[in-house]
Specification:
- By secondary structure, the chain is an alpha/beta fold.
- The protein has helices spanning about 1-20, 20-30, 45-50, 65-75, 110-120, 155-165, 185, 200-210, 235-245; strands at about 35-40, 55-60, 80-85, 95-105, 125-135, 145, 180, 200, 215-220, 260-265.
- The strands form two sheets. It has a seven-stranded mixed β-sheet with strand order 3-2-1-4-5-10-9, with helices on both faces.
- The longest helix has 17 residues, at about 1-20.
- The protein is globular and about 55 Å long.
Length: about 270
C-alpha cells in the first residue's frame, strides 16, 4: 500500500509539473545542458523530471530534511549530487554550470538580490539562468500576506500600478520587491506558502538582470492564463481592460500575470 501511495504521489507531481507552462519551458531549455544546478531543490522533484543519463545534476537546499529526502529519491543515480546550502552564502566554484535555475524559491528568501547574484556567479559564460516563481509583485496577483510597508490591498495595487509606468522613465537599479510578514510566524503554525517573505515582480527582475550584464532570452508573466472574473463591478471591468492590454503584449500590462518566468543568458 505504501508503494502504491508513493507512485500516486509521483504521478500527481508530474501532472502538476506538465500543467504548468513555465515548468514545461524549463524542461525544454534544460535538454541540451550537461551541468545543471537546482537552487532550492527541496526533495528533488524537479530534478527528477529533468533528469537524464547524459547530464550531471546538483541540487542545494537550506533544509536538511529536504536534502535527506532528495538523497533517498536519487540513491541509485550517480549523476546527482545534493547538499545543504544557504543560497545567500553559496560556496561553489564560479562559472561551473550550463544552467542554474530556481523554481518557487525566491519568494521565500530575505535577500533576493544577493541570491540572484550568487546564482549568476555560478553560470558559465554562454550559460543560462532561469527563474520561476509567483509574480506576487503584480498589482493583480498579491500573495495574501501583510505588506511590511503597511499598505492595504487597494493602496498596494495603485502604488505598484503607478511605479510600473514610472520605471520607463527611470529604471530601478534594485529589484524593489515588497517585503511581507510571514503568516506562519503570525499564526504560529505552518501551511503551504505561509512562509513567504517577499513578493517577486517580473518587470523589475528583467531590469535588474540587464543591469548585471545578462541578456534576456525569454520572459513571460503568463497573463494569458489569468482567470476571467465576473464583470459586475467597476474594479473587474478595470482589471479586465488592463489584462487585455497585457495579452496584446503592451508593457507594463504584460507584466501583470500570475507567474514570473525569465530566461537570461550570460555573455
Amino acid at each position: 500500500e505504501n508503494r502504491d501511495y508513493a507512485k500516486a504521489g509521483e504521478k500527481e507531481i508530474k501532472k502538476a509539473f506538465f500543467a504548468n507552462p513555465a515548468l514545461v519551458k524549463l524542461l525544454n531549455y534544460s535538454k541540451k545542458d550537461r551541468t545543471i544546478l537546482d537552487c532550492g531543490c527541496g526533495d528533488g522533484r524537479i530534478i527528477n523530471i529533468l533528469w537524464r543519463k547524459d547530464a550531471f545534476f546538483t541540487g542545494i537546499d537550506i533544509s536538511k530534511r529536504a536534502i535527506k529526502s532528495a538523497k533517498f529519491r536519487f540513491k541509485s543515480k550517480e549523476n546527482v549530487k545534493l547538499k545543504v546550502a544557504d543560497l545567500e552564502k553559496l560556496n561553489l566554484k564560479a562559472e561551473t554550470f550550463d544552467l542554474v535555475y530556481s523554481v518557487y524559491t525566491l519568494e521565500h528568501v530575505d535577500k533576493p538580490e544577493k541570491v540572484i547574484a550568487n546564482m549568476t556567479h555560478l553560470v558559465r559564460k554562454g550559460g543560462k539562468l532561469i527563474i520561476v516563481c509567483p509574480n506576487y509583485g503584480s498589482p493583480f496577483q498579491p500573495s495574501g500576506m501583510k505588506l511590511a510597508s503597511g499598505d492595504g490591498g487597494l493602496e498596494r495595487a495603485i502604488n505598484i500600478f503607478l511605479k510600473s509606468h514610472t520605471y520607463f522613465l527611470k529604471r530601478p537599479l534594485d529589484l524593489e520587491w515588497g517585503k511581507v510578514y510571514s503568516k506562519s510566524l503570525e499564526k504560529g503554525e505552518w501551511r503551504p506558502d505561509w512562509d513567504i517573505t517577499i513578493e517577486p515582480y517580473i518587470q523589475t527582475l528583467i531590469y535588474f538582470l540587464n543591469n548585471n550584464n545578462l541578456r534576456i532570452v525569454e520572459s513571460s508573466s503568463f497573463i494569458e492564463t489569468t482567470k476571467r472574473y465576473p464583470k459586475l463591478l467597476l474594479r473587474n471591468h478595470i482589471r479586465a481592460f488592463f489584462e487585455t492590454l497585457g495579452m496584446w503584449g503592451i508593457p507594463p500590462y504584460k507584466y501583470y500575470g500570475p507567474t514570473l518566468f525569465v530566461v537570461a543568458k550570460k555573455p
